[in-house]
Amino acid sequence: GMYGALTVSLPGLFRDDMVTMTILTAAYLLFGWYAYHRSRIGLVYQLVYMALMYVSELIAIFLAVNLATVFGVGNIIFIYMVNVLKLFFMFVVLLLIKRILRSRSVTDGTRLKLGGMAAVPLFSIVLLFLYTIGGEVFFVRYGYGWMILYCVLVLVINLYCLYFWYDVASSQELKHKLELTQQQNEL
Questions:
Q1: How far, in Å, CA of 187 to CA of 176, rounded?
Q2: How confident is the model over 134-184, as pLDDT tens digits?
Q3: What is the DSSP letter of 5?
Q4: DSSP conformational letter for 135
Q5: Are 135 and 161 in contact (CB under 8 A)?
Q6: Could you tell me if 66 and 144 are in contact, meaning their C-beta atoms sit under 8 angstroms apart?
Q7: CB 32 within 8 A of CB 46
Q8: For residue 131, which of 162, 159, 154 has the smallest C-alpha distance?
Q9: Which of 14, 44, 77, 126 could form a disulfide bond with 19, CB atoms 3.0-4.6 angstroms apart?
Q10: Is residue 112 scored above 50 in pLDDT?
Q11: DSSP code at position 110
């Protein structure tokens, strides 16, 4: 509720997209921290999820623009197309993340360095945002196909990093358990 109110009110309040995105990202992380979890790994999962949702929305928008120019659809059909594509891509991303999370269960280890893990989704969000703002000349010259490809690549990189972080976290956990077992054997 409160996050929804922020998403509606902030763009009209500041009229600066960078400020709006920064505040929304911080609010999303704070709401997750206080309402759902109190773990550092949970914050990383939130960042990855936010980056993937942002990427899926951009893919849907640019794909709809391409389809609208190819088929010459009207404004109302274009709006429906954007919304359907957004929902479809968001649902696909949600299923992918759910599958990854279900297949791997890792606790929030104290030895795991999470700062680097949060960097990839944060940089992804910032780069996509800057690319969409500053890319008007690029879009006119080369079309929206390259933006779709760029968004898909960012999506794949974020999913791969999430998968890789699970492997790193699980190996850290196993290493810690092995050290504890060796200490118990020595005693």
A1: 17
A2: 666 677 777 777 777 777 787 788 778 777 777 777 777 788 888 889 888
A3: H
A4: T
A5: no
A6: yes
A7: yes
A8: 154
A9: 14
A10: no
A11: S
